[in-house]
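Hello, quick one for you while I still have it in my head. My current little project is about how a certain protein chain folds up. You're getting the sequence in one-letter code plus the fold written as tokens. Would you mind checking whether the tokens look sensible for this chain? Here's the protein in full, and shout if anything looks odd to you:
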Amino acid sequence: MSRAERREYAVGILATLVILAVLSFTAMSNRRRAEGADTAFHVTAEFGRADGVSVGSPVRIAGMEIGKVARMTLDPRFRALITLEFPRGVDLPDDSAASIQTDGLFGQKFIEVQPGGSETLLKSGGRISYAQDSVILEDLIATIVARAKASRAGTSP
């Protein structure tokens, strides 16, 4: 066997080992993600408007980021069903509330969860009953302007 043939065999064997290593790493990585799903706690909340919230948006409790939006779908009544994902060990009372908030005036939207006072806890797959929709800045400004006009018209001689 010539030197060139030995080099080709060595390169072929090395390439095969690299491909096997990449495939093994990918398989292990996918398995960890699937196992990680078992360690997550999911609850849903129903909103009339979910403007500015998307999959991956933060979920906060007491101002601290504790979870994320895992899924968003429409129900048959065209309301937004948002699935919130928390790590296991987050115990939420079944009378907790969720609201869509904005980080500052023009900041990122997030979901704030206010834990209730019930001793009964939500189970994974449960539903948050109390949800407050997103406030649209344009609607808020229009309301303020309309009230100012009405007030001005009422005080004119």
Summary: Residues 18 and 24 are 10 Å apart (CA to CA). The two ends are 109 Å apart (CA to CA). The beta strands are 40-47, 58-61, 64-74, 80-87, 97-102, 109-114, 126-128, 130-132.
